[in-house]
Design a protein that fits this description.
The protein is mainly β. It has one domain. It is about 0% helix and about 35% strand. It has strands spanning about 25, 35-40, 45, 55, 55-60, 70-75, 80, 85, 90-95, 105. The strands form five sheets. The chain has a two-stranded antiparallel ribbon. The protein has a two-stranded antiparallel ribbon with strand order 3-4. The structure holds fe (ii) ion (2 copies). One fe (ii) ion binds near residues 31, 36, 67 and 102.
């Protein structure tokens, strides 16, 4: 999926693979009495058979007390919001580091586009 990400200028020939992304900015759940920030931008939209789409997310958490965690997860399909935008839920666990991991169950920021 990331292979389709256009790193240069988008041309009309590339437009079909130029899909929207979402920002996300939230915290993991508590683990061993601390949490980490998860911030970034999802991968581009990936179409599903039912006409919706989802996004891949991967990255590193913030640093706390000599460690961080990584994560790699697919979001839910698109969830329409009351104001005509859409969001995605992402649920999972970070990697196991320093004897623990962190759960997360959060929502991306919204974007206006409804097509992938
Ligand atoms: Fe989306
Ligand atoms: Fe941690």
């Amino acid at each position: 999926m990331y292979e389709q990400f256009p790193f240069g200028n988008v041309t009309s020939m590339q437009a079909e693979t130029y899909r929207h992304v979402h920002e996300y900015s939230d915290n993991t759940e508590l683990g061993q009495n601390h949490l980490h920030a998860m911030r970034g931008v999802t991968g581009p939209a990936i179409s599903t058979a039912n006409g919706s789409h989802y996004h891949c997310m991967r990255g590193l958490t913030s640093w706390w007390n000599d460690h961080y965690h990584t994560y790699c997860v697919n979001t839910s399909t698109a969830i329409p919001t009351d104001n005509g935008l859409h969001v995605h839920v992402y649920t999972g666990q970070t990697t196991f580091n320093m004897g623990h991991l962190h759960d997360y169950n959060k929502t991306t920021l919204a974007v206006a586009i409804t097509a992938p």
